[in-house]
Design a protein that fits this description.
Structural class: alpha/beta
Order of helices and strands: HEEHEHHEHHEHEEEHHEHEEEEEEH
Shape: elongated
CATH architecture of the largest domain: 3-Layer(aba) Sandwich
Mean pLDDT: 86
Oligomer: single chain
C-alpha cells in the first residue's frame, strides 16, 4: 500500500510539474503569426489544458483535431489550417486534443523515440498558427486501455462536444489502436459532429511525416527537413560554459546544452541563434552562426554529441541564456584534422562560405 501511495504521489507531482510547464508556456506565448494573415487574432493567448479533467469551461462550437503533431510539420499545418478556418467561419473555437507523453514512450519504451520539438516549442508553433486551445491528455497505461467507443463517446463527445472533427489519414485511437477512421466517421454524425479525414500532404513529391523528418536530420539533410517542416529545424537549450578550445584557435563558440531531443547528424552547419530570455540585450535578435555538431574527433577526449555555435561578428557573453539554434544548411560533414592550425584554416573557410549563404 505504501508503495502504491508513493507511486500515486510521484505521478501527481509529475502531473503538477507538466501542468506548470504548460501554464508557463501559455503565459509567455503571444501569437505572432509567421504563416499567414491572422491579424485579427494577434494578441490572443493560446489556452492550454492538462487533459479532459482540467477543462474549466465549455467551448463555443468547437472544431477539433486530434493527434500527436510531433514537429507541427506541413502535414499537421494543413489539418490545423482547416480547423482554424472552419472555427472562424462558424464563430467557434479551434482545438487540438493531443497526448503527453507521446504514446509510443509508454507503449514501446524500447523504441527510443526522439521528438522533433519540446512541448514549449510545440505550443509556440500552434499559437503562431492561430489555434485557440490545446488539450494535452496525460498518456499512461490506464488511458491506453480506454476502448475506442468510450474514447469517442466520453472524451470527444461528452467532454469537448465538437461540431466538426478533422483527423489525419493515419490516426488511430483507443485500446491497442483499435479505433479506426470508419468507426469515427460512423459514430460522429449520431453524436452531432461531422468527421473529415485529411489525406497525406506531399511537398515536391515527398511525403510529409515526422518519421521522415527525423530520418532527414539523422542524415544531415537539414534543408530538405525544412521543406517538410515549413521552417528550419531548431534546437532549443541553454548556453553553457565549454572547454574554451574554440577560443584558443580564434573561433569562440556558444555551447548548447539541448532541451530538444534531436540534433542533426555530425557536421558543420550555418543558421541563426536567437536569445529567448527577457533579461538580455540580445533578446529577440537573430544572430548568424556557424555550428559544429559532433563528437569532436580531432581531440578524442569525449563522446557526447555537442552543438557548438560560432556567432559571426559578435562580442558578448551568452552564458546562461536559453536560445533557439536553427540549422538552415549544411556546409560539410565532420572531419578529423592533423593539427589545430589545419582546423583553424578549415573553420575560416567554413565561415567564408556561410557568410555567402547568409547574405553577409
Amino acid at each position: 500500500m505504501e508503495d502504491e501511495f508513493d507511486r500515486r504521489e510521484d505521478e501527481e507531482r509529475c502531473d503538477q510539474d507538466r501542468r506548470k510547464e504548460a501554464e508557463i508556456a501559455c503565459d509567455e506565448v503571444v501569437r505572432q503569426d509567421p504563416h499567414g494573415d491572422h491579424s485579427s487574432e494577434r494578441g490572443k493567448r493560446l489556452e492550454i489544458y492538462r487533459g479532459i479533467r482540467d477543462l474549466r469551461r465549455s467551448f463555443t462550437r468547437p472544431v477539433l483535431t486530434l493527434g500527436n503533431f510531433d514537429g507541427v510539420h506541413l502535414g499537421h499545418q494543413a489539418i490545423l489550417d482547416l480547423v482554424i478556418e472552419r472555427a472562424r467561419a462558424l464563430g467557434g473555437e479551434s482545438i487540438l486534443y493531443t497526448f503527453d507523453p507521446h504514446p509510443r514512450r509508454v507503449l514501446q519504451p524500447e523504441s527510443d523515440l526522439r521528438l522533433l520539438d519540446t512541448f514549449e516549442q510545440k505550443v509556440e508553433t500552434l499559437a503562431g498558427l492561430g489555434l485557440d486551445a490545446v488539450i494535452a491528455e496525460p498518456f499512461d497505461r490506464d488511458f491506453a486501455s480506454v476502448s475506442p467507443e468510450r474514447f469517442i463517446g466520453y472524451y470527444i463527445h461528452e467532454r469537448i462536444r465538437p461540431v466538426e472533427v478533422y483527423v489525419g489519414y493515419d490516426f488511430h485511437f483507443g485500446r491497442d489502436r483499435e479505433g479506426s477512421m470508419r468507426l469515427l466517421t460512423e459514430r460522429g454524425p449520431h453524436l452531432g459532429f461531422s468527421v473529415t479525414v485529411v489525406s497525406e500532404v506531399q511537398v515536391e513529391g515527398r511525403d510529409v511525416n515526422s518519421t521522415r523528418i527525423r530520418e532527414l536530420l539523422a542524415e544531415g539533410e537539414v534543408e530538405e527537413a525544412a521543406l517538410l517542416l515549413g521552417r528550419p529545424f531548431c534546437a532549443r537549450g541553454e548556453i553553457v560554459e565549454g572547454d574554451q578550445r574554440g577560443q584558443t584557435i580564434g573561433f569562440p563558440t556558444a555551447n548548447l546544452s539541448p532541451e530538444t531531443e534531436i540534433l542533426p547528424a555530425p557536421g558543420v552547419y550555418f543558421g541563426h541563434l536567437r536569445c529567448l530570455g527577457e533579461d538580455s540585450e540580445w533578446t529577440g535578435r537573430s544572430l548568424p552562426v556557424v555550428t559544429n555538431v559532433g563528437y569532436r574527433p580531432t581531440f578524442r577526449d569525449g563522446r557526447d554529441l555537442v552543438a557548438e555555435a560560432h556567432v559571426l561578428d559578435f562580442e558578448g557573453d551568452l552564458y546562461g541564456q536559453r536560445v533557439d539554434l536553427s540549422f538552415e544548411g549544411r556546409l560539410r560533414g565532420e572531419e578529423r584534422f592533423s593539427s589545430s592550425d589545419a582546423l583553424r584554416r578549415q573553420i575560416a573557410k567554413d565561415v567564408q562560405v556561410a557568410r555567402k549563404h547568409l547574405g553577409l
